[in-house]
Design a protein that fits this description.
It is built from 26 helices and 29 strands. It is an alpha/beta fold and 715 residues long. The strands form seven sheets. It has an eight-stranded parallel barrel with strand order 3-4-6-10-11-12-13-14, surrounded by six helices. Strand 3, helix 1 and strand 4 (61-68) form a beta-alpha-beta unit. The longest helix has 20 residues, at 145-164. It comes from Streptomyces hesseae. In the N-terminal section; belongs to the NADH:flavin oxidoreductase/NADH oxidase family.
């Protein structure tokens, strides 16, 4: 990125004022709140590099994901600070953050009954006897006074070790229905009758003590923050901003150095753009500043600088908190500071970042393909190496893969032609963003087109159907085919491996038909074997059109993958509200005149439902005719035309999610290829084995045998 003289309008100056937080000062009001990332202690180098890039991008404060304080409340995919052995990689993270002048924060946590301690096998603890979250057959035991004293000791030791690791802000985490402090606060979790139960003052006792302990231990040099979910959106069954949520803040108002406030649980806090707008939490958290003199940070998927200013000037927040917007654009603060508003890569609120963490893999982002690749591949969100070949590139298909490939290639300095058969560019993003709730997804297209239209070395060629013959005549040495994929009309997907029985005169539609405006009428069966967002939004679109929709899925819940994006319950509620009937654990077996035969996926028992038409949301097939046509010419003909390589990108290579398509396009721009390589194309974390320590297995075990045979020292 170029160094530019700041030229932002003066109304944004307030965002760059320093803010005092206890004994430390944030250089501006941009605050990357704690967020998980799927890296944690399994990928510590990736975690540290990712946080460092945020600091480089101008965030005044960069905070870790939750950091477990003890093995009795351990969350396998996060970081930990059990003892001094965890300090080296945490210190690496604080060094990366401090390198760019940001404050480093750490979110200390004990997860209580939220986790089953599958790694440590320690019986979980809770304020009262409690089955652990989810479907694990584990019960957390009720804590006694010794346990409470131990929790306080573990937090205090962790705070001291956090200071040793270089952290400037130490959190007490009482949010998202995930940790012991909020479990003690909650009447649902806390049924004690001693001084830690009953009244709110008693239920808040542990939170107060943890804050006081941290202040006494590190408060002279580190700020002590509280992260608190002020409303659980559960009415009288839970904590609410109009009652106990407000009461807790009033009760402890001046005790911490910072209030980090949001909604609980995370499904409420991290709502997707399908179900919420920017700044959607404002009405819940705006009371906090009226009851405390301490600085307040909150979130709301902020992407608009004007909204950020209104949060400050309107008295809602002192610091602009962000998790997802800082993932989509780690350089968001610097771009605002430099007045480069057209360069802001706005979060689309799809929660693919959340899905990566929930799947325990390094986080990815639909908008930012470099997320999670900062250390592994050495990718930077703003800088990309200049071109190192004399290639010219033809990219065919201006969907998410083609747009990103052309943009990044253009940034590198390559001469690029980007052609698409449609007059309106954007491919699947343009079409899908017109479906219910997906409007903000158009940002994937809009940001890239804004960048491309500035590049004199990139030609945009809409309304151009490129044939193999035309590609041969294009005088380009690289041809990237990003022509996308088509939805199948034969029912083949995850459940059906072979085409279904569908009479020739049966009205059968696919998502491609619906997005093109070809809509059925009457009684419509939507068969969703895709299990992500498409089946649900198609059903909603048809219901809006006036169809009587029956939703059928072989899975046990609607849109099951959306459990990873923290929206499944909202998706299922919406589908149940919009559809006449919802059938889970059933597959569409065959279509008959006026009816559909459904089969239970467990018993095979068949039922019949009325149907005038069918929409099959099952599998996809790459549109790779151009690729296969070019490859059929052979190397001699391609070479004679000056083409040294033909590659496929995105859905044309392998149908998937938009984030995968964007990543595929970016990978091609960086490497000029997308083929599988013999060597691993990224760095891995190595674990050094200490062969000097006795093995815990018998001498006949495989590890002992490998040691005797002299096998290597690294995993």
């Amino acid at each position: 990125m170029e160094n530019r003289t700041p030229r932002r309008p003066a109304r944004y100056d307030i965002l760059f004022e320093p803010v005092r937080i206890g004994p430390v000062t944030a250089k501006n009001r941009f605050y990357q709140v704690p967020h998980c990332n799927g890296m944690g202690r399994a990928f510590p180098s990736s975690m540290a590099a990712m946080r460092g890039v945020k600091a480089e991008g101008g965030w005044g404060v960069v905070v870790t994901e939750q950091c477990d304080v003890h093995h009795s409340g351990n969350h396998q995919r996060e970081i930990r600070i059990w003892d001094e052995k965890d300090l080296p990689y945490l210190t690496r993270a604080t060094d990366e953050i401090h390198r760019h002048g940001a404050l480093a924060g750490v979110e200390l946590a004990h997860n209580g009954s939220y986790v089953g301690n599958l790694e440590s096998r320690t019986i979980p603890v809770a304020p009262s006897l409690k089955a652990v979250r989810g479907n694990l057959p584990i019960t957390a035991r009720a804590m006694d006074k010794d346990d409470i004293r131990a929790v306080r000791r573990w937090h205090r030791t962790a705070a001291l070790n956090a200071r040793r690791a270089g952290f400037d802000i130490v959190y007490i985490y009482a949010g998202h229905d995930m940790t012991l402090p909020v479990h003690f606060l909650s009447r649902r979790h806390n049924h004690r009758t001693d001084e830690y139960g009953g009244s709110l003052e008693n239920r808040a006792r542990l939170l107060r003590e943890l804050i006081e302990d941290a202040k006494e231990a590190v408060g002279d040099t580190c700020a002590v923050a509280v992260r608190f979910g002020v409303d659980e959106l559960m009415g009288p069954r839970g904590i609410g901003a109009e009652d106990e949520g407000r009461d807790v803040v009033e009760m402890l108002a001046e005790l911490p150095d910072l209030w980090d406030v949001n909604l609980s649980n995370f499904d409420n806090d991290g709502q997707t753009s399908r179900f919420s707008d920017e700044a959607f939490q404002q009405n819940y958290v705006k009371f906090v500043k009226s009851v405390t003199s301490k600085p307040v940070v909150g979130v709301g998927r902020f992407t608009s600088p004007d909204t950020m200013v209104s949060m400050i000037k309107g008295g809602t927040l002192d610091l602009i908190g962000a998790a997802r917007p800082s993932i989509a654009d780690p350089f968001l603060p610097r771009k605002i500071e430099e007045g480069r508003f057209d360069d802001l890569r706005e979060c689309i609120g799809c929660n693919i970042c959340v899905a990566g963490d929930k799947a325990s893999v390094p986080m990815r982002c639909t908008q930012n393909p470099t997320m999670g690749e900062e250390w592994r591949r050495g990718w930077h969100p703003e800088y990309i190496p200049p071109k190192d070949t004399d290639d010219t590139v033809l990219v065919v298909g201006a969907g998410p893969a083609g747009l990103e490939a052309a943009r990044a290639l253009g940034q590198r300095g390559y001469d690029v032609m980007l052609a698409d058969r449609d007059r309106e560019l954007g491919g699947r993003v343009t079409l899908e963003s017109r479906l219910p709730g997906l409007g903000e997804w158009a940002r994937v297209r809009d940001w890239r087109l804004t960048q491309l239209r500035r590049m004199p070395n990139v030609q945009l060629l809409p309304d151009n159907e490129i044939t193999a013959e035309m590609a041969l005549e294009a005088e380009c040495s690289l041809v990237a085919v990003a022509t996308g994929a088509a939805w199948r009309a034969d029912g083949v997907g995850r459940y059906h491996s072979f085409p279904m029985e569908i009479p020739a005169d049966t009205p059968v539609f696919t998502p491609d038909d619906i997005m093109a405006g070809r809509l059925p009428s009457g009684r419509v069966v939507v068969f969703d074997d895709d299990h992500y967002y498409m089946g649900g939004v198609i059903a909603e679109r048809l219901a809006e059109h006036g169809c009587e929709v029956t939703f059928v899925t072989p899975d046990s819940v609607v849109s099951s993958f959306t459990q990873f994006t923290a929206e499944q319950k909202r998706v299922q509620r919406r589908v149940m509200e919009k559809c006449a009937a919802v059938h889970t654990s059933k597959a569409l077996l065959r279509a008959e005149p006026g009816a559909a035969r459904l089969g239970c996926v467990y018993t095979g028992r068949e039922t019949e439902v009325a149907a005038d038409a069918f929409v099959l949301v099952t599998g996809m097939v790459p549109r790779d005719e151009l690729y296969t046509g070019l490859r059929a010419y052979g190397e001699d003909v391609l070479g004679a035309a000056g083409i040294r390589r033909v590659v496929r990108l995105g859905d044309c290579l392998g149908p998937g999610i938009i984030a995968a398509a964007v990543h595929s396009g970016h990978l091609f721009a960086r490497t000029l290829d997308t083929a599988i390589t013999d060597e691993t194309p990224y760095r891995r974390e190595n674990v050094e084995l200490d062969w000097d320590q006795p093995l815990p297995l018998s001498s006949g075990g495989v590890w002992a045998r490998e040691k005797r045979q002299g096998h290597g020292r690294q995993l």
